[in-house]
What does this fold into?
Amino acid sequence: MKINYPAVLVAGILHWILGAVWYGIFTNKFVELMAWTPQQLSEIESQSHTKEYVLAFLSSLVLVYVLAHFLRIRRLVI
It folds into this structure.
């Protein structure tokens, strides 16, 4: 049985979007727990976060790809 790569890509994108929504909902609580001052927060917001976004997306793709392999192997055993 083959891995459906378009499905892996779509699942990776959806996982990444779901993570963004999740952290968007709890941003205020996270900032509160970190005890960042408004000055620190504005400093962090002014930085580029492209590297983190790309790394998060690649992590999502790897996670989904490994899960697809696990499910493929599991299906072959059953």
In short: The CA atoms of residues 12 and 61 lie 5 Å apart. Residues 5-77 form one domain.
